[in-house]
Amino acid sequence: MKNLKHILGTLLVTALVFTSCTNNDNDDLVIPATAAEFDAIQEQALEGLTQTFQFNAEDGAINFTSAKGVEIYINGGCLTKNGVAVTGAVELQFVELFDRGSMLTTNKPTMGFMPNGDKALLISGGEFFVQATQNGVALETNCGFQMQIPADLTGGVDNAMILWNGIIDAEGNLAWAEEKRDGANGQGGVFGEGNQYYGFFQSFGWSNVDRFYSDPRPKTTILVAVPTGYDNTNSSVYLSYDGEEAGLANLDTYDAQTGLFSEHYGQIPIGLECHVIFATEDGGNWKYAIKAVTIVANGVITFTESETSVATEAQLTTIINNLP
């Protein structure tokens, strides 16, 4: 009898431990990512997509070909550091984002500023980061640089595309402002020809070949509730519009009182079929949840902890890119 009681007691303890470790419905067992951990996994994704090229400033006009076939043309003789012409070894850092999976993991959605300051979805012909450095110091160019961008990476040439400059706010989030061409000398701009975009960029940093998403249907705002313990510091909410593989929207406002993320600009078409994505960090990997949604007026979408899964960066990128 004594041995039987010992065996039954052991089985009971084992069952309790097993239940506690697998009960995804109990949010109290979850330790949410810190803001630093979430920032780190996004920075890790960006670093993994950063290409580097070395050259000498004295080489003059040179060009590089990226992993996806973008041709970058730059004149080393135009580079300056603190206003002084540069000589010697230079490193060029380059990032190219054409798919919504990479846009999500690097937190580089395609949201552009409208004339009234609101934001709306952009459809991209490519997001780019270009920066020349010398000994870790960022350089400037006084004659710009050019890129030749394969349009088949984003569905072919779209002559409505224009250039946008990336603006990163105090929280590290990026949005896009239309680049204003220099009226005096016509510098800057992009045009499509054949199966290429030809872009003329005036300065280093983030740039984007984009146009606003267009949909004639009435628009609305939406709200998204995320699992307990998460907010806009340790998680993000994105929208993937079905049929638009080269664009990714995000909900950039969060109300700490209600615990809701919001698209408060009223730019989402009613009746739109899309996928809402919750993303955060978990033990060095990505925790995420995805819901297929048809937008209704003033809709509220809710994610619970039990709906989340964990994936590597490569797995999540593939999952997002395989959405309709």
SSE diagram, text form:
Blueprint: H1 2-22, H2 35-48, E1 51-56, E2 61-65, E3 71-75, E4 79-81, E5 84-85, E6 89-97, H3 100-105, E7 111-113, E8 119-134, E9 137-138, E10 140-141, E11 145-150, E12 162-168, E13 174-178, E14 189-193, E15 196-201, E16 205-212, E17 219-225, E18 235-241, E19 249-250, E20 253-255, E21 260-269, E22 273-282, E23 285-294, E24 299-302, E25 309-311, H4 313-321
Parallel strand pairs: 17-24
Antiparallel strand pairs: 1-6, 2-3, 3-11, 4-5, 4-10, 6-8, 7-8, 8-9, 8-16, 11-15, 12-13, 12-16, 14-15, 17-21, 18-19, 18-22, 20-21, 22-23, 23-25
Overview of the structural elements:
With 324 residues, this protein is an alpha+beta fold. It folds into two domains: 45-212, Chondroitinase Ac, Chain A, domain 3, CATH 2.60.220; 215-321, Immunoglobulin-like (Sandwich), CATH 2.60.40.10. Helix content is 15%, strand content 45%. It has helices at 2-22, 35-48, 100-105, 313-321; strands spanning 51-56, 61-65, 71-75, 79-81, 84-85, 89-97, 111-113, 119-134, 137-138, 140-141, 145-150, 162-168, 174-178, 189-193, 196-201, 205-212, 219-225, 235-241, 249-250, 253-255, 260-269, 273-282, 285-294, 299-302, 309-311. Strands 1, 6, 7, 8, 9, 12, 13 and 16 form an eight-stranded antiparallel beta sheet that branches. Strands 2-3-11-15-14 form a five-stranded antiparallel beta sheet, with no helix packed on it. A hairpin with a 2-residue loop joins strand 8 and strand 9 (137-138).
The first-level CATH class name of the largest domain:
Mainly Beta
What is the 3D form?
globular
The string of secondary-structure elements, in order, is HHEEEEEEHEEEEEEEEEEEEEEEEEEEH
Structural class: alpha+beta
Assembly state of the chains shown: single chain
Residues in β-strands, percent: over 45%
Radius of gyration: 23 Å
